[in-house]
């Protein structure tokens, strides 16, 4: 395909050609950034969370009398375990993504306290006996808590429980002791200290905003039933969880008429946490689709007029022996050239927009992989858009050349 | 002349219906997206208490450790410890001042077969209602004396009054909250400032419904109500007595009437911080005293996503405008012959320019009307999103006018280049070719 005649024609129609280039450049820049934002949101929604999400039901019981916790919690748990289909039930202080966060800062030296300089903030999950099984924690190293450790874990009105054992997530263990095993190491926050007895799969914090490098900084502590905790977790087969949820809420409400029982499946807890994120992702998808459609229609419009304007020239070329295929390829090549120029310009623009967003918002650098995606999409859109007008151009009969314009 | 251009423009637009529809639709989509996001942004970044916000300030102190303190650079804490908040309230250095925290309040209905339920509560001090200009339907607030006496009094919102007392004047009646009896002293008229400025830093929602119960701080604490958010800077030993624990959980708002009052309050606050440092209660003397709008910017109350959507919508509008430029240009280049004839018959360049600008303006007007419908549709979509600000997204008169302004400006911008090109067409070659 000879490119020189195309360039010569484009030089004559500089403004329409420039407009196509500009439109493609803008679309490319917006598309790259929008797709990047979509993918970040999608990966946020699908963040790994090392508990048995599918079978889990969470019921919160609030407004109880904390003085009666030690008699009421075992009674409530016994009743919950009596529900048909419940495989495990336990009490905990909170669940991942519930937004109900209890955080504390720990250091690695005995003199560390909560406000010391070199401490790590950790989300605490206080588990009653059987909490590991009910949540479906996946042990990676060491062991989980024993019955004696649960019994010794008195919390009372303090911030942290008595007892001296903890289980951490993999990410936290790796960050605190890089390259070493965390087992046997100790976390300090005067006057408390806890020895790491196990490392479990990563579990998300109750709240971490959106993607955050510290979202897996979680530690588990065993507590006994003196602790005024109110989150009951029940595990059942996924197909039974809706019934288990209904029965669990009814049972807890009946047993504790002065309190308020509210529950949901864990799937709903997760969906609620990411509801804004997912609606934003869908909005971005919608904008991308509409924007590409507008761009494509714009190219169709411009090329159609272009073809109509050049009917006579096309006729002359056909009369001089150019085949239909040659005319078709001419317009396709022309569009390809314009699209390429637009894409190059668009990449620069996309990079600039990304720099701006990085500066003003918590957005990382866009991986280079997004650039070819944007390029290929716009090449395809351009080719699809020009196909109709190009076919019409190819259909111009040679006899047009002999007629007056 | 304008009438003639209008006629020409309409004829030209009618001649090529598909193209006209395409231009109008593209412009309308761009305008619809822009107006939808701008409306949302305007509502979210709005002034919660117009006319009053400029006089309201949020003092802050710093309970951070000495380690890592950089004078003049360390940002003070979002909330205050109980002794500091009470010292500031009791000092009465501002026209009005109140300390507050959010709490979940368990309401126990006094009718048979009704379960208790939780509702959003505010634990605060007497000045709260006058400070924020909260309107009352029945009764009023409580006094500073009631605060000191830990009187079990309550102010409830209109919807809670409807629910508990069927909307009757409930002043003097009893409402059971957290298993204690509180006497109603006031019922509010609807009060839900947006953004919910006084919940910022206290762990509350930023937008949405107003709170349902307002209780004197000490009597709410006596009923074992705990704050929504608690930040401890040293070891906490008893979570039931956070008044004496090293924890921060209260926000303080003060009313200062002029710049002199602001300056003297800031001096008072700095003096207080230095005094507390000398006493060893604080390690850092840094303070802040932001006005309401500055405080809302500081806590970044408008979600980043909403700003990104606005940028995106403007980018999209730009693409739509470029698209319209291209299509208008293509149209006018095809009509070189017609322009040549008009020029030969005596039309000036200015007349040709005017004619094409009128054509662009008509496209803009149509795009604006359609864009308005699309914006209504878009806002309907926003209202059905799960976000807490969803119900606030509504078009007002200002945005209605802005829609047409945006439509006109973008269509005239889009028409500029094609109209200029059209006015440059020389009559002779066009006539010769025919």
From TrEMBL, chain A:
Membrane topology: Multi-pass membrane protein
Species this chain originates from: Fulvimonas soli
UniProt family annotation: Belongs to the ABC-4 integral membrane protein family.
Residue span, MacB-like periplasmic core domain: 56-224
GO molecular function, one term: transmembrane transporter activity
Pfam family, one: MacB_PCD
Predominant cellular place of this UniProt entry's protein: membrane
Compartments it resides in: Cell membrane
InterPro entries: ABC3_permease_C, MacB_PCD, Macrolide_Exporter_MacB
Transmembrane segments: 15-38, 280-308, 336-357, 369-387
Stretches assigned to the ABC3 transporter permease C-terminal domain: 287-397
Keyword terms: Cell membrane, Membrane, Transmembrane, Transmembrane helix
Keyword Iron found: no
Protein name: Putative ABC transport system permease protein
Superkingdom of the source species: Bacteria
Keyword flag Cell membrane: yes
Cellular component aspect of the GO annotation: plasma membrane
TrEMBL record, chain B:
A Pfam cross-reference name: FtsX
Start and end residues of each ABC3 transporter permease C-terminal domain: 313-422
One cellular-component annotation, GO: plasma membrane
Recorded GO MF terms: transmembrane transporter activity
TM segment ranges: 311-330, 351-375, 395-417
Keywords: Cell membrane, Membrane, Transmembrane, Transmembrane helix
Full protein name: Putative ABC transport system permease protein
